[in-house]
Amino acid sequence: MKRLVVLGGGESGVGTAILGIKEGFQVFVSDKGPVKEEYKEVLKHYKIEWEELQHTEDKILNADVVMKSPGIPDSVPLVVTLKETGVPVISEIEFASRYTKAIIIGITGSNGKTTTTMLTGHIFKEAGLGVGIAGNIGDSYAKMVAERDHDYYVLEISSFQLDGIVDFKPHIAVLTNITPDHLDRYDYEFDKYIASKFRIAMNQTKDDYLIYDADDEVIVDWLKKNPVRSKLLPFSLERKLEEGAFIEDDKIIIKIENNTTEMSRDALALEGKHNVKNTMAATTAAKLISIRKETIRRSIESFQGAEHRLEKVLKIHHVQYVNDSKATNVNATYYALDSMKTPTVWIVGGVDKGNDYRELMPLVREKVKAIICLGKDNSKIIDAFGNVVDLMVETFAMDQAVKVAYKIAERGDTVLLSPACASFDLFENYMDRGNQFKAAIKKL
To answer: Is 286 in contact with 174 (CB distance < 8 Å)?
Structure first.
């Protein structure tokens, strides 16, 4: 009996363990931190051996295959030892894909991947297709494959998950954009991070598709130097394309082979240029699966967007509060500031991943009236913008930040939480940060 060891007892780890049992593996789950009560119950139910608060090497190094949760870096000594002894260390995406015959739509990118994944899944559901939406969001992909396999999967995939693939191949791959992010995990070398994102296409053949942003110079340059085998379908806001998605006379045009689809830009429920791009990517994927134009249009008009992504929370005394906690890097915050139409009180800060704030400078000058720093160390933000805005306040808790924003904001302003940083200094994750922001607003 083959031995599967799962490192990390969270959503993807426990899901992989369930699939492992179903496929006849002897399974052991090991987590260096505590395992949540809900996951312990599941492990007990399936009689899966597990441990928490430690990694017992004797029970791990004898594995035939190891599934590592994406939060564990490759540089951890245990992972290095496993690889040196020749044990394959793979991601949940790789493991689960070996046990499904579904058509896979894989979506990656520094920003926009959650919205694009949710919108693509929404269109597929509206078309009546059996679809699972998983990967970096929602329920575990492996658990879905084990418990109720689907005909299609729309997967949001992070670079860390792509680092752990061997044979994984989406029929349709989407690359929303590439901007510097997570560089702390890639030796601060941007090229390593770009290469990681492009792994989504590494096993694709001429019968598969790569949908990508043709306005993104990083992607375009990389493709010139490192051609892929799949059929390229670009999208662009800046120019007309022979094939792919583009804008003409305020309409979104999608051309695939000799088939052209047109849609009014006004049909989009989501605001902002970046959401036009996310919509183009999702719609192109839907057209490749031959979903009808009417279904696509109806889906786009009814789509609500992702939580914690430019989410309008409340209006208090004619001030709009917007939760963009999911903006964990500079590029995501760029899109948020770009979509602001009123003077903005901007709440920013957290764990800096090697951020360069210079690209935000023109938008901050134009739109931001005050900055509220929210982090344990705000020095880099203060250095970057101290001379640019009239008012800058340091805070160290969400309640405090929201109270300060409430005092500063005037009729017609927007208070925007768009941190441009990771959340782990003061919060569990970006969702906790966004939820605390919403709770603090409701207390005002």
So the answer is: no
Dist. CA 117–CA 132, nearest whole Å: 11
Q: Binding site membership: which residues?
A: 109-115
Q: Which residues are annotated as a binding site for ATP?
A: 109-115
User: For a pLDDT cut of 90, what percent of the chain falls above it?
Assistant: 87
Q: The domain 3-90 belongs to what CATH superfamily?
A: NAD(P)-binding Rossmann-like Domain (3.40.50.720)
pLDDT higher than 80, residue 182: no
Q: What are 40-59's pLDDT values in tens digits?
A: 999 999 999 999 999 999 99
Of 405, 428, 415, nearest in space to 351 by CA: 428
pTM for the model: 0.82
C-alpha pair distances (Å), 74 with each of 13, 77, 78, 79, 136: 16, 8, 9, 6, 18
The CATH code of the domain at 94-302 is 3.40.1190.10
The sign of the dihedral angle between the CA atoms of 428, 186, 381, 413 is negative
Mean pLDDT score across all residues of the chain: 95
Q: Do 231 and 257 form a contact (C-beta atoms < 8 A)? A: no
SS3 content of the chain, % helix, strand, coil (to 5): 40, 25, 40
- Beta strands of 136-291 (E only): which ranges? 152-156, 172-175, 209-213, 231-235, 244-248, 251-256, 259-264
Angle at 370 between CA 365 and CA 372, to 5 degrees: 125
For 57, what's the count of Cα atoms within 13 Å in the CB-facing half-sphere?
Answer: 7
Residue 25: pLDDT band with limits 50, 70, 90:
very high
Domain 3-90 matches domain 311-443 at the CATH topology level: no
**Three-class secondary structure of residue 142 per DSSP:** helix
CATH of 311-443, one of 3.60.20.10, 3.10.450.50, 3.90.190.20, 3.40.50.150: 3.90.190.20
Lay out the sheet containing 49-52: strands in order across: 49-52, 26-31, 3-7, 65-68, 89-90
What is the rounded (10 degree) CA torsion for 314, 316, 319, 324? Answer: -30
Crossing angle for the helix pair 273-288 and 330-338, nearest 10 degrees? 110
**Domain spans in the chain, listed from the N-terminal domain onward:** 3-90, 94-302, 311-443
Nearest CA among 157, 182, 184, 180 for reference residue 168: 157
Residue 181 confidence (pLDDT) above 90: no
